[in-house]
Automatic annotation (TrEMBL):
UniProt-recorded Gene Ontology molecular function terms: 4 iron, 4 sulfur cluster binding; coproporphyrinogen oxidase activity; metal ion binding
Predominant localisation class: cytoplasm
GO BP of this protein: porphyrin-containing compound biosynthetic process
GO cellular component terms attached to this protein's record: cytoplasm
Functional note: Probably acts as a heme chaperone, transferring heme to an unknown acceptor. Binds one molecule of heme per monomer, possibly covalently. Binds 1 [4Fe-4S] cluster. The cluster is coordinated with 3 cysteines and an exchangeable S-adenosyl-L-methionine.
Homology family: Belongs to the anaerobic coproporphyrinogen-III oxidase family. HemW subfamily.
Record-linked NCBIfam families: hemN_rel
Record bears the keyword Zinc: no
SMART domains, per the entry: Elp3
Cytoplasm recorded as keyword: yes
Record CDD domains: Radical_SAM
Protein name: Heme chaperone HemW
Annotated compartments: Cytoplasm
Length: 410
């Protein structure tokens, strides 16, 4: 029987895609995302689809899912992807292991999944292969083994350089550990290293944020991602804010922190190419994320992972036990899918491309959107020269209001 839909339509048990989606596969950029849904502990602000060991135990104490068997399951979905896409040549330009905490798996297990992707599809020449890593889960030896396994880029979750800020976020690494990890990664041969930062945490001061930026830059990454803290419902952080233990993030403070980030990162030679991302040059940009943002195809491996091929988007069941059971039964782990209409795809192009430094073409907008773009250019939210050339490109002020501008232009 087809999978039960969840805000979508049923997916055939074999995961097959409509002919319209398969047309052009291989001619569009193609990437693979691998979701590793395990964490040693759950951070207080996190609402990602991830599980601790305690959350994966049954009533009798036995594990219903485990990192130890996960590589086999991920490889099984790689095999499924190959069957669904047929014998078309689909070189993989980017692979991204995210989580969760991918580095709770050994480098050899991660490498086995990567090797399966390469064997079934083939990695394109110069393919970018990234893994996320929590600083406390890696050392020099692990990073050397990851590099030997074929990883070319690594992203460390630094978040802050201040101990009291890390405590509010319930991060377990100590200040200074991410910087040490960057040094080890460089020694291991990683050319591209990213640090993730979060700003606007309750109790963080301007001085704290400046120290985090300064410490991150001193480590020498060629890419920094900086995200405003979002208090997600259902998290421990949201409960603390609701009880009045912590102040909610302030929009004006968030704007000031963003401006500080852009100033310091730009001065250090890292320039924005997407609203929340700065890189030392084109080769340092996240090719995998750019594939998402520019309408490429990708297959998402793992519990809760999302995929998109040729205008069809689908998502896997969330729980690792359900994911494993479906694959063991020879069924797709997909929960449901949706076929994007032309209007859906137009809106998503505006949503994603407007956030990029090159912006989006004005001819993507309808009449009301073009009128809104003209007003935004007159108000200094869109670059006037770019607007005259037929593109909607955010100014620095416009970046602060990107979400609202998307709604106006679409």
């Amino acid at each position: 029987m087809p999978s039960v839909p969840l805000d979508g339509v049923p997916v055939p048990d074999d995961g097959s895609l409509p002919a319209s989606a398969l047309a052009g596969v291989g001619s569009r950029p193609f990437g693979v995302y691998v979701h590793v849904p395990f964490c040693a502990t759950r951070c207080g602000y996190c609402d990602f689809n991830t599980y601790t060991a305690a959350e994966l135990r049954s009533r009798d104490g036995s594990a219903v899912a485990s990192p130890r068997t996960y590589a086999d399951q991920a490889v099984a979905e790689v095999d499924l992807a190959r069957r669904v896409l047929g014998d078309r040549e689909v070189p993989v330009r980017t692979v991204f292991f995210g989580g969760g905490t991918p580095t709770l798996l050994s480098p050899e297990e991660l490498g086995r999944i990567l090797a399966a992707i390469d064997d079934r599809f083939g990695l394109a020449p110069g393919a970018e292969v990234t893994t996320e890593a929590n600083p406390e889960t890696v050392d020099r030896d692990v990073l050397l083994r990851l590099r030997d396994a074929g990883f070319t880029r690594i992203s460390f979750g630094m978040q802050s350089a201040r101990e009291h800020v890390l405590a509010v976020l319930e991060r377990t690494h100590t200040p200074g550990r991410p910087q040490q990890c960057v040094a080890w990664a460089r020694e291991a041969g990683f050319e591209h290293v990213n640090l993730d930062l979060i700003y606007g945490t309750p109790g963080e001061s301007d001085a704290d944020w400046k120290e985090s930026l300064t410490a991150a830059l001193a480590a020498g990454p060629d890419h920094v991602s900086a995200y405003s803290l979002i208090v997600e419902e259902g998290t421990r952080l949201a409960a603390r804010v609701r009880r009045g233990e912590l102040a909610p993030p302030d929009d004006d403070v968030m704007a000031d922190r963003y401006l500080m980030a852009d100033e310091l990162l730009s001065a250090a030679g890292l320039h924005w190419y997407e609203v929340s991302n700065w890189a030392a040059g084109p080769s340092a940009r996240s090719a995998h994320n750019l594939l998402y943002w520019t309408g490429g195809d990708w297959w998402g491996i793992g519990p809760g992972a999302h995929s998109h091929v040729g205008g069809v988007r689908w998502w896997n069941v969330k729980h690792p036990a359900a994911y494993a059971a479906r694959l063991a039964a020879g069924r797709t782990p997909a929960q449901a899918r949706e076929l994007l209409s032309a209007e859906d795809r137009r809106f998503e192009r505006i949503l994603l491309e407007l956030r990029l430094a090159q912006g989006c073409p004005l001819d993507l907008l309808d009449d009301s959107g073009r009128a809104a773009a003209a007003r935004a250019a007159a108000d200094g939210l869109l670059d006037a020269a770019a607007h005259a050339r037929g593109r909607a490109v955010l100014t620095l002020r416009g970046r602060l209001l990107a979400d609202a501008l998307v709604l106006d232009l679409s």
